[in-house]
Structures are given as C-alpha cells and as structure tokens.
Amino acid sequence: MGKCLNHPERETSYICMKHNIYLCEECLECRDPEIYCKFRSSCPIYFISKKGFEKSETEDKTESIDKECTVVFEPGCHTVKVLKGTTLLEASKKADIYINASCNGKGSCGKCKLIMESGSVDSDKTALLSDREKERGYLLACQSRVKEDTVVRIPEETIEKKLKTAGMGEAATKKLSGLVDKIDPILQRVSLELDLPTLQDTVSDLDRLRRELKKLGYDTSRMGTNIRVIRQITNAVRDDHFKVVASVLFRKCSSEIVDVSPSAHNHKKFLGMAIDLGTTSIVVYIVDMADGSVLSAASGHNSQAACGDDVINRIVCSEKDGVGKLKKMAISTINNLTTMALASINTDYKQIDNIAISGNTIMTHLLLGIDPRYIRREPYIPTASEFPVIQAGEIGLKAAPYAGLFVMPGPASYVGGDIVAGVLYTGFHRSRELTLFIDIGTNGEIVLGNNEFLMTAACSAGPAFEGGGIRWGMRAEEGAIEKISLDPENFKPEYVTIDNKLARGICGSGMIDLLSEMLLKGVIGQDGKFRIEPDHPRMVMFNGELAFIIEYAEHIDSEEDIIFTQSDIRSLILSKAAVFAGFNILLEQVGMDFSSIEQMIITGGFGQYLDIEKAITIGLLPDIEREKFRYMGNSSIAGAYMALLSGRFRKEAMQISNSMTYLDFSSSHKFMEEFTRAQFLPHTDLKLFPGVKLITSISSQS
Amino acid sequence: MGKCLNHPERETSYICMKHNIYLCEECLECRDPEIYCKFRSSCPIYFISKKGFEKSETEDKTESIDKECTVVFEPGCHTVKVLKGTTLLEASKKADIYINASCNGKGSCGKCKLIMESGSVDSDKTALLSDREKERGYLLACQSRVKEDTVVRIPEETIEKKLKTAGMGEAATKKLSGLVDKIDPILQRVSLELDLPTLQDTVSDLDRLRRELKKLGYDTSRMGTNIRVIRQITNAVRDDHFKVVASVLFRKCSSEIVDVSPSAHNHKKFLGMAIDLGTTSIVVYIVDMADGSVLSAASGHNSQAACGDDVINRIVCSEKDGVGKLKKMAISTINNLTTMALASINTDYKQIDNIAISGNTIMTHLLLGIDPRYIRREPYIPTASEFPVIQAGEIGLKAAPYAGLFVMPGPASYVGGDIVAGVLYTGFHRSRELTLFIDIGTNGEIVLGNNEFLMTAACSAGPAFEGGGIRWGMRAEEGAIEKISLDPENFKPEYVTIDNKLARGICGSGMIDLLSEMLLKGVIGQDGKFRIEPDHPRMVMFNGELAFIIEYAEHIDSEEDIIFTQSDIRSLILSKAAVFAGFNILLEQVGMDFSSIEQMIITGGFGQYLDIEKAITIGLLPDIEREKFRYMGNSSIAGAYMALLSGRFRKEAMQISNSMTYLDFSSSHKFMEEFTRAQFLPHTDLKLFPGVKLITSISSQS
User: CB-based contact (8 Å) between B322 and chain A?
Assistant: First the structure.
C-alpha cells in the first residue's frame, strides 16, 4: 500500500510498474496526464498493478470453500457449479460464456451487465448502473459474488453480437485475387507411387519413400522426418499398394516429412487457413490452396476479452492465472470460428494443412503459450520476435495435427506480426514513395518508410476508438452507430447503424463523426468543452457531468438514453492526440514533416468505416492532400493470407520485420510536448490544419 | 486348421507364414530340414503361426471374467491380482518379474519352471518336467492356469542371474581408450553470457541468444528451435542475469536449440550413454563426455525375453499385444540398467544429454515403437533403416528429456545397427585386408569385405549357442559351464563355470568345447551320433533318447543330472552348419574361397569365451591360419560408444550401412546344398578342414 500521487490522503494498492507511482482507483480510470502519470499516453505500459492482490485472492478462496452454488445463465440455460463467493464474471468464464468485460473485472467499465432472475448475490456498490437499471435487477457480473443458487439473464446489450461476416469469403477473394502469383505453401502434399518391394529391392519403407521424392526433384538430403511419421509409414504404404500422399513441411533451411497417408484415403481437399489474431476480434479465412480463393470466413470476439480489453490487462491476467489459460481462450475462439467457417462449406477441419497467423506480439506470445510478462517491464523485451514453423497439433489448433503453422514475425514488443502483415499487404516497403502507415486499434502502431527504410513506433491510443472507456462506446457490431451527422439548427442527430438495427451504442467511426460534427456545429469548442446551454433539450447531466443525448431511450426500446459525456469527449481527444503526436515524432526523427508524405495508409478493423475528412477535422489524421490517403481495411488478415500461400511473401515478412527500426516513445519528452499540443480540436497549431474550416472557431470566440 | 506336411494324420493349427505349410507341434520343435521345411535353417523367417490363436485367447478371457485371484511369487513376495484362467507366466509379466521363457509360452522350452507352494492351478501335461520334479511340485509357468489364490516359488534355476558386470567400466575404458580422438557429441552444451537488454538494445530473448551463439562461431542460419524451448527462455535467461547454458542438437543438415537453462543451475556433469540393445541382453555404458572414459556400466536381460527368445517371436508378440508393450519392456530394461549404473557413481539421470544405441533391426523398431510386422513377411522390408535424431523424452528413456539419441542405422531386416556398429568398431571397412566378420547370436550375421566392398547376409543359427532348445542350455551367466574337457579314458568331464559357482547348465562356449571333445575322444561320430555303449556309466536314457551325463545331480545340489542329449547335439550341428554354409555362399558370391580371407573377426557376447580351435574342430569356423582370427567381444556396444562421442564415426556408420549389399539366403538352393554338406563334424568335405585331426575318424570307422 502507498499514498496516491494526486490524492495523498488516499491509501492505495495500485502501483505503476514502470514509474513506481501509487495511484488511487479514480486516477487509475482517468486518462488525463495532467492528473496523474504524464507519460501515460505515450507509454504502452500504462498498467497499474494492485499490490497484495494475490493474497486477498487466497483469502477469498479460503472463506468460500464451504459451499458450492449453481449458477444458471439465461438465455440458453448454461449451468455451472462454483464455490460461494465466486463472481458472476468468473462463473461465466467457467461456463464458457462470453460476457463483455473491457476492464478485466475491475468494476470500472460497466459493460458486464446481467439481470438477476432468482437467487441472490453480494454486489459491490457501483455508479455505473442507473437507478432504473438497479430497480430492474441489473448488476455488474464482476462486482457480484454468488451467495446461493442463482439464475441470471444476459441482457441484449451484453450478449456477444456476431461481427459482420456475410459475404466475407467472396469479398476477400475479390480483394486478394492476383496478390499471389505462385502458390507454394509451407506444407506441400506430394502424391507418390512407390516401387513395390521385391526380394531384389528390399530398401526400407522410408528409403523407398525418400527415393521417390528425390526422383520428383525434392532435395531429400535436407529432408528429415520424425519418429511419429516412421511409425505411420509401415501401414500407410501398404494400405493402398504403395501409393501414398506424403506431406512435407518446409522449414527455414530444411524440410520434414510430417505425414504419410494411403492415397486411397486421401480424397481430401487441400485447405489453408489465414488468421488475424486481434486483441479484440479474430478473423479466420478458409483458403483453397489450389487457387487461393477464400472459400469462407468467420470473425468473432477474442474470448480473452473477459480478461480485459487491452494487451496489458491480458499480460496481467496471464501472470495471475497462467499463460495456459489465455492460450486456451485464444485457441478456443479460433477453433470455434474455424468450425463456423467450415460448416458453411461442409468440410472437416482435418483438411486444413496450412495455417498462417498474424497478431501483435502479446497475442502471439499468448497463443503459443510463451510468457509475455517482460513485455510490460522496462526495457520491454519479448521472448521471441521470430517463431519456428510449428505444427497445429502442438498448440491444439483445429486442423490436421501436422499442419504447418507460420507465425508472422514481429520486430518489437509493441509492434508485432499484425503490422508486418500490414506492411506486406500494402506493399509500400517495395516502393520509393514515402509512406506513413497507421493501424488504429488499442495501440496505434505507426510505420514510416519506403523501400529504403522502415521506422516504427507504437503509441497508446487507448481503447476509446474501440468503444473502451466510453459510456456508450462499442465495437463495430450490429446496432453500432457508425455514421452520424447533426442538424445545424437543433443538433438532432441523423445516424446509420450497422446492419440497420436499433442503435445499441456508438463505434469508433461514429465517434469521430460525432466529435467532428459537434465541433463544426458548435456543440463543443476546440478544447472539447460543451458550448451549448446545459438546458438545451439534447443535453443532460450524468454522474455529475454534462452529456449530449444521441438518442432517446424510448426510440430504441432501451432503459437509457444513448449519451456522449464530457469525459467521453476527453478520452477521445487524448486518444487522437496520442496518434497525431506519434506521427509528428516519427517524422521529426527522420527530419521530415507531413509535406514529405507521399502516401498515407490507414488500416485496422476500425478503418473500414472511417470518414477521412472528419478524422482530419478532429486532428486524428494530418491535413494533407486527400488523394494521398488509402484505406486498406484489415491488412493483418491480408498479409497472413499472402504468407499462407507464398514462400516469397513469408521470406519478405521476415525481411520486413528484420529491417524495421523501433522507436520507443515512452521516455521521449518531445512526445509529451507534441501530445499536449495535440489535445485540441484539431490542434493548438491551426497552421497544421489549413483545410479545416471551423465555423465554431468564430462562434465560440464570439 | 490343416494337415501336417510330415504327418498327414495330424490336424494342426500351426502354419509357416512364408511357405504356407502346416506343421504339427513335433515338427515345429524340430530343426531338421529333412523332416519338415527344407528352408528353415537358412530362412530367418522360420516362425510358425498358430491360426485361430487370437480367437481362443478371447474365449479364455470370457470364461475367466468371474473370478480374480491373487498370485504371490516367492522369494520377494511379489503379489499380483489376475483373472482366473491366467497363466502363471502372464501373471509374472504383470508383476514385472523376469522368468526365463525362451519359447514365448509355447510350452516347448521347459525353462519357465516354478514350484507350487500353496493354492492350485490347471496344468497341461508336459514331458519337460521329470517325475522327481513333478513330485516336488514343479510346474511350467506358461502351462499353468490360475484357479484360486496361489503362492509359487521361483526356483534357483529360473531366477534371473546378473550378467557379469563388475569392473565393466574400467575394462571398457581400457578397451575403448584411444578410439576417439575428437569428441563432438550430437548434443552440445554451450555456456553463454548474453548482453543485458536495454532500451537501446531491445532484441528478443531468442534473438539475443542466437546473436551470442553466432559470435561463438555457430551457424545460426541453420539453427532452429522449438516452441517448448521458446517457452523456457523467458525465465531461463533472467534467472541468472542472462547467463545461460544452451543445449544444441545437431541433426543431419541443421541444428536445433533444445534446452536453455540458467548457468547457476547448471553445475551438472556432461554425461553420455552407449547402449547395446541385444535380443537377449542389454548393456549400458555411462560415459564422461569430457574425456570419453566409461564411468560405469551395467548389463541385464532384455525383459522382452518373456515374449520369446528370438526376434520372430518378438514380432509375433508385438502383433498380438501391440508394439507398445514390447517398446515398454525394452525401455524399462534400459531404464533399470541406467539406474543401476548411475547409482554406482551416485549421479542423477538428468545429467545424461547424449545417447547412442545399437541393436538389430527388430530391436530398434520395437524400441522406437515402429511396427516390425513386415520384417517377417516376404520380401522382408523394414520400415526404416536410418532414423532421425530423436530426443530421449520422445520414447521415455531415462535421461534429460531433450537428450539427443543417435540410433545406429541398419541396412536390412536381418542385418541391423548392431552389425554396423561391429564393423565400425573393428574398422575393417577402412582396411584393404579381406575380412570375414561374424556376429554369433540367434541369427548369425556375416559380413565379408574390406575398404572396397561390404557384403552381408544373415543365417538362422538358431538359439542353440545361447542355450535355446538345449535341455541344459543356458546363457553365459553365473554357474554356466563355459569350458569343458573329457578324460580320454572314462570321459569324465572337467569343467569351469562362470564365477566358479555350482554348475547350473552349459552355455555356448561350453557346448562347443563339449561337442569338440566328444568328437575328438570318440564319444560321438562325425554324424553326431553316440558311439559309446548305452550302458556306459556316463550314458542315460532321457525321454526315449540317449544322453551324455555332464554332471551328476548330487554333485551340484540339483534334482537332475546335467545331461547333453542326442537332440541337443543335432540342434548344435544344425546351428553350426547354417553359419558355415553362410560363410561359403557369401564367399562364392564374390568368387572367392576361405584361402582369400586375410582376417576373420568373431564378435558377440558369445565370442568372449570361444575356443577357436574347438570351434574349428566342430566345423563352425573355417580351418584357416589361426593368427588370422581376432576375438573382438561385444562390438555392438563399442560401436555405439564411438558414435556417441564422435560425429565422424556417426557419419561413418551411415556410410557403412549404405554401402552394405545384403544377400538373402532364404530362397537360395545353393545355400541348402551347403547347409546339408555342413551337417557333419566338422564337414562332409574333410579337405576343408586339413588341420582337424580326428582320432574318432579312425576309431569310429574301425
């Protein structure tokens, strides 16, 4: 325990692992660097650890050992037995039910709402539920400890919605066609017809196989095998008269026969799988390895989200519960998506022989069961940045157990394989054009460069663009407001939701639209503060602060109005400021400014709905010629797809990763200055945004 | 069922898998080619399968399900629960008790004697127990089915005796010193002091390790690793301030980091293990990898012997009970020997990082869990003749789990890694001298060649030289008669036993001595038939045939006289004839005869007691200049030792295996002719044995 830096009267057990500063819970939630740690927005290591946490955990267990309770989650009647004292969030994890829990059970995000149907729980007080919600039996899963047999209902807003997947296969095929001209996967299947053994030709089964492979031009001198395959060969060659299919896995400088099956049993398709392993969502493509077409696709939430929205919380969770738990969560999400994607093409998972996966460094470590703990401790060292080719069975992925798995390399702790995949796909590392690349997610990873150099950095954009820390923020799911404009007279919003469902919240692109509209229509000033009267019909007080009403509860069959609070605006401004400061510092490092940029590439799941003009208006993107911008959508999955199919691209990915120079912003004072200057809409220095014509810059000053 | 080839009045369920001939049990026991299968002695595939065997097995189980009985084996009070109807032999296997069972429970060898102490069993009738034995409660374990709770005693003669091991380490060091000049094991340990990571040097732990290895001159471009090691690295590097010991395993054309441990925890020795995996006995050497000295050694019986003496019975057993069972038996024997050998030097098995193992092709297949079934079916194809470097943990050997295991390659189904090891050790493949090499065991493997060619063949010598099928035959264990001579007047034997214990039987060298003495002293003629009167004090009738009394029961505290029967003589003659015919055919193939031989090397556990002169007298070895003979003892373990220490020798072993030309005798009519001609003492053609002066050749003809 120690005294809070900002509130010395408060004892707290939370400590910043990097700067060794104690902070109370209030400061912890806050993202304003003036209030607590000035490094926070540039520092990807903003995690605050609760000292002595593990001890209290043990105590809890001791006191609750006496009684086991049954918890039923409706709809679906998912039943699980837990010890008395277990939180409903933990119970849901045990029951394999996905509940949104952005803050990893800290009780600060208010997303894990449940409705009590019968039984009772001990619930901690929370300001995150409205009185109306409390009356109707709402509670927060992470703050409610089971006392007896209990039935709870997962309300509509807490149930996981499917991400948009319809037509993804066709769309992907269209997007990706022509990218790969020569298909040479990491695992190749070779049909062989061996000479029948005779008394005159008694070489062993294995040598017979190798002899045939050699005849076909394979370099058998560098081709090994393993004991499992040798055990297989005996019967495999004899089951179909010495006609077999051998699967050869190509590693860095050698190859290995990893499977031998009788030809007769081998009518199977030759499928591959490209995976984008995102912190928030995971995308799976099933690819026909013969022609590269994407046969089907699926995407869904990474079930690790139950351990928190951001990578730091995931690391903390892995330190507490073991890496194995997080590994299992990722694997099970992928396996579920694989099953979904395969079901639509009526195919068995054993037909998948090749896999390529891209994810950030932390996701990759967790997937492979590698301890990521030192990634969040200075000097932020990952265990590995390149990975050997492994086999699906080694980590439990649903595929042929011998399937080759290529893991996209990542150059640094906070710039990972997803960014390398992005560069690979967008291809600017092959061009002379100076390119500024950004992938916007929880971390904003930036790459600046061309065919001569690649510099990269990460800035902690925070989860705001993905809905984290925003009262009605949500991911780009069904019912999310993705486009919005305000009536200049009465500020009445006109909006579009994803799949045209009733509005359930607002996603990143919607927030950028809203912020830009509010700024342009004079609802807020350049400092982000509300400029219209508090008694305006669209304004309301919420938890002691002003908020803008986006939609009234009665229009959307909800308990509450959808609002956008002053804090929400502040969070969004801090996020965009971190990204913009990142651009600036990276350019400065190479002695350039925005005018040198010949191309600006924006990627990320977020990017596909982004209105560039409005993003410039709020100062998230630089005010450069609009034709220089390119939206590239999810470039991580596209890069994984390329690596899946092509040895040339796998090699290129290695080269990209190796040639990237990583800049660490977390101890840069210049970054802090830039960050502070960018906390204005669009910026304190309006000369940087000549194209942004602010009506409000006049009206608010008048 | 079918009619016996030789006794059409008899229905039999035994069929030769190769020649598709039905044979009754009597024919089955007999090794005389005139009586049944003329190919048998040249055919390594002499196994006779009992059709419908598995079905009756199932029936047995059904009827015995109702009752469980306790069987206690004394001495030692080993207790096991089995179902009623289980044989005592099966019960002993379940209790992990070693009982000699040469014939794999067929009831034909009479070696698995037990004494009933209490309880009762259903015993089949057997002629293999004398009336005196039956009176005293003797029974055959394989022919006795448990009816109720039973206590049996393992008599002295059935208990496994330790093979001679005292001083083996020192003797081996003396024998092997100087063989290897440069030690470069397959797994190398490298001590590394990594640069400490800083914000300026943030490469991953793995890259940091590889960077240091590269500095030390290792070719890291061909060095891979695996996911298990990557998981290890995170904490391994940090446990002792980035000082680690990396273990690098060198494969054919690449290397792999297989372990990383903190230096501080790595005070361990660097040990290796050489293993001779014999069908009958297994020898283990513990080797100091720093200087090549043999620190300790142990040898013992391969516990697979419970499944029969010869490799064919082992294959049959693996087909019936699964390869896994035989694999486990071999592994557990090796692990027990390892434990014994390490106990004497007070060392833990985890210090063993390197292993080299040599065994015949069947033993190797079984050890690695590879199905050997096609080895005994025409055209006799092994699954593999070369094996990848595997890790001890993959097959459960007691050693560091990542320890590198080099398995000696073997060129053919019936010429295996033990013979390659023998050639490697004796080194004649490097010399111009034309050499005839023989390893005498159950199979006699012969190699003819020099630095220009290597031809090899196997002939089924049969288990006689190892005591199999001989009434009082035994292995070279404590109490075995290993040297013997006969008084020319009264034929009273004078003999020496191993370790000077009371005589318990006669081993191979003793039998050769005895046969030679009987021939030279006129007890038998050149045809092997007894020439002295049946009423001579040293003659007795046994089971309807004449036998020579080697020792009277009362002199050795036994129930029975030690005798040598007419059948025993016949078996021995057939065995030696098969070997000699093998020599002849092999020479003929290259257009040579015995006079071309410049060197004759004899190896095998058997060889160390062999009296060359007497072996020539009976026609087992050719009558060439005595100075051309070299006894090389156990060359299999010596070759394994060399491969353990030296990369050059591992490569040489591969070359030997690849350059061997294998001749299959089993369909050779010439072999049959030679075999028939050699069934005389020493041979039908005495011109081949000018040095053998037979007193009896006069006396028997007079």
Answer: no
For A131, residues 6+ apart whose C-beta sits below 8 A from its C-beta are: none
Q: Is B357 on the interface with A (CB under 8 A)?
A: no
Note if the bond before A8 is cis, omega within 30 degrees.
no
ipTM of the complex: 0.82
pLDDT in tens, B163-194: 545 566 777 888 888 889 999 999 999 999 99
Report phi then psi at B184, rounded to 5: -140, 90
Task: Please judge whether B199 and A233 are an interchain contact, meaning their C-beta atoms are less than 8 angstroms apart.
Answer: no
Which member of A251, A379, A385 has the closest CB to residue B199?
A: A379
Q: Taking the CB of residue A133, how many other CB atoms lie within 10 A of it?
A: 18
Q: Which of A253, A381, A664 sits opposite B222 (nearest CB)?
A: A253
Do residues B622 and B600 make contact, with C-beta atoms less than 8 angstroms apart? yes
User: Which residue from B477, B485, B530, B522 is spatially nearest to B504, judged by alpha carbons?
Assistant: B477
Helix H or strand E encompassing B429 = none
Query: Chain B within 8 Å of A651 (Cβ-Cβ)?
Result: no
| DSSP string across B277-327 | E-SSEEEEEEEETTT--EEEEEEEE-GGGGG-SSHHHHHHHHHHH-HHHHH
Sole residue written with tokens 């069961």: A369
Q: Which of these, A663, A579, A459, lies nearest to A44 by C-alpha position?
A: A459
User: In 3D, which of A463, A459, A498 has the Cα closest to residue A478?
Assistant: A498
How far is it, in rounded angstroms, from Cα B186 to Cα B296? 21
Q: Give me the DSSP letters along B21-85.
A: -B--HHHHH---TTTS-TTTTT-S---EEETTHHHHHHHHHHHHTT-EEEEEEETTTEEEEEETT
Positive or negative torsion for Cα A423, A424, A426, A427: positive
Q: pLDDT band at residue B62, thresholds of 50, 70 and 90?
A: very low
Q: Quick one: closest CA in A to B411, which residue?
A: A203
Pairing of strands A144-146, A121-123: antiparallel
Q: Running DSSP on this structure, what letter comes out for residue A100?
A: -
Closest of A357, A330, A387 to residue B231, by C-alpha: A387
Contact A197 B381 (CB under 8 A): yes
B654 lies within 8 A of chain A by CB:
no
Q: Which two three-digit tokens encode residue B155?
A: 């008599």
Structure-token pair, residue B618: 């009976």
* A114: CB partners within 8 A, 6+ apart: A88, A99, A138, A139, A140, A141, A144, A152, A153, A154, A155, A158
Name which of A381, A385, A662 is nearest B197 (Cβ-Cβ): A381
A369 in contact with B at a CB cutoff of 8 Å? Answer: yes
Rounded alpha-carbon distances, angstroms, from residue B86 to A425, B59, B62, B103: 68, 12, 12, 18
Q: Does B384 touch chain A (CB under 8 A)?
A: yes
Does the beta carbon of A25 lie under 8 angstroms from any beta carbon of chain B? no
**Distance between CA atoms of residues A237 and B373, nearest Å:** 13
Interface of A with B in 242-271 (CB under 8 A): 251-254
Share of chain B above pLDDT 70, in %: 87
Which of B194, B234, B378 best probes binding to A when mutated, by most A CB atoms within 10 angstroms? B234
Hey, how many other C-beta atoms are within 10 angstroms of the C-beta on A374?
21
Q: How much is the pLDDT for B363? A: 97
Q: Band of the pLDDT at A607, cuts 50, 70, 90?
A: very low
pTM: 0.81
Is the predicted pLDDT of residue B199 greater than 80, yes or no?
yes
Contacts of A65 (CB under 8 A, 6+ apart): A83
Confidence category of residue B136, pLDDT binned at 50, 70, 90 = confident
- So what's the pLDDT on residue B68? 87
Of A110-119, A468-477, B602-611, which gets the smallest average pLDDT?
B602-611
Three-class DSSP category at B88: helix
